[in-house]
């Protein structure tokens, strides 16, 4: 399978403090990849590096074989969409205006707003259940509603690669499932390559084709959910003892935690 997004010897830092050091990662085209690991392990930092929001201190990121840092900003926005962890809401902007911003990379001097844009925005509002809130200011929404508005904008961007940093934050379990079903549906229908940071191992195992487990800024293990969601990997990455059983309906691995590693005698 071809690689659409790759990190080669990638190093990333904040204020000269290295978070990711010499990391290699190849994201296969057309797959859903989930990055998992404990808080502070570098998951979001890696996603920022892959999206060009954070410039490397070493190594490089390749998008379809091109060094992403050398591409024009608008070209990157047409090829790669990003939902950051804590996006900043423009003051007074309504839900529909926010979602419409997802279409801006597709416009230019000779291509303005079109019926296709209207259709794409309407579809994004529909699948995120925001039609009735289209005219409401984003900053007046609940945390969950606001998250869905940002997801709708990312969906409206219609890029072949989509990066999502904790897309289920602030959502109840029903809407978590709705969002991840949307991601899988877009992947299945359009072949969209998805990389997402998730905290919930069960959700990651259920909705991702490939898991990347991180600890202390490095990749500890990667592979299929069945290969990664094991007692040994869970103890190594999260520091807890756990059993793993198969979901009786789907066969997906389910984690049953026992105790913290630090609590062992």
Structure overview:
It is a single chain. The protein is of the alpha/beta class. It has one domain: P-loop containing nucleotide triphosphate hydrolases (Rossmann fold), CATH 3.40.50.300. Strands 6-7-8-3-9-10 form a six-stranded mixed β-sheet, with helices on both faces. Strands 2-1-4-5 form a four-stranded antiparallel β-sheet, with helices on one face. The protein has a two-stranded antiparallel ribbon with strand order 11-12. β4 and β5 form a beta hairpin. The mean pLDDT is 90.
Main traits of this protein?
265 residues, alpha/beta, Rossmann fold, 9 helices
Assign an overall shape. globular
CATH top level is Alpha Beta
User: What kind of sheet is the major sheet?
Assistant: 6 strands, mixed
Helix content: 25-40%
Structural class: alpha/beta
Radius of gyration over all CA atoms, rounded: 19 Å
Protein name: Iron-dicitrate ABC transporter ATP-binding protein
Main location: membrane
GO molecular function: ATP binding; ATP hydrolysis activity
GO biological process, one term: iron ion transport
């Amino acid at each position: 399978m071809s690689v659409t997004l790759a990190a080669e010897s990638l190093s990333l830092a904040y204020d000269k403090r290295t978070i990711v050091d010499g990391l290699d990662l190849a994201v296969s085209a057309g797959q859903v990849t989930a990055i998992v690991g404990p808080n502070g392990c570098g998951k979001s930092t890696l996603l920022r590096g892959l999206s060009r929001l954070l410039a490397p201190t070493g190594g490089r990121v390749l998008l379809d074989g091109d060094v992403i840092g050398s591409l024009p900003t608008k070209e990157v926005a047409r090829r790669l969409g990003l939902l950051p962890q804590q996006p900043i809401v423009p003051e007074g902007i309504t839900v529909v205006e926010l979602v419409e911003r997802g279409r801006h990379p597709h416009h230019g001097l000779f291509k303005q707003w079109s019926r296709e844009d209207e259709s794409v925005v309407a579809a994004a509002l529909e699948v995120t259940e925001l039609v009735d809130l289209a005219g409401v200011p984003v900053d007046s929404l609940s945390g969950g509603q606001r998250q869905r508005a940002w997801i709708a904008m990312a969906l409206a961007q219609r890029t072949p690669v989509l990066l999502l940093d904790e897309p289920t934050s602030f959502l109840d379990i029903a809407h978590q499932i709705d969002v991840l079903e949307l991601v899988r549906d877009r992947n299945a229908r359009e072949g969209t390559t998805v990389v997402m940071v998730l905290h919930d191992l069960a959700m990651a195992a259920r909705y991702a084709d490939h898991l990347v487990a991180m600890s202390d800024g490095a990749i500890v293990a990667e592979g299929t959910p069945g290969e990664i969601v094991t007692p040994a990997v869970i103890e190594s990455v999260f520091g807890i003892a756990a059993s793993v059983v198969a979901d009786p309906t789907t066969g997906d691995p389910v984690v049953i935690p026992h105790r913290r590693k630090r609590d062992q005698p």
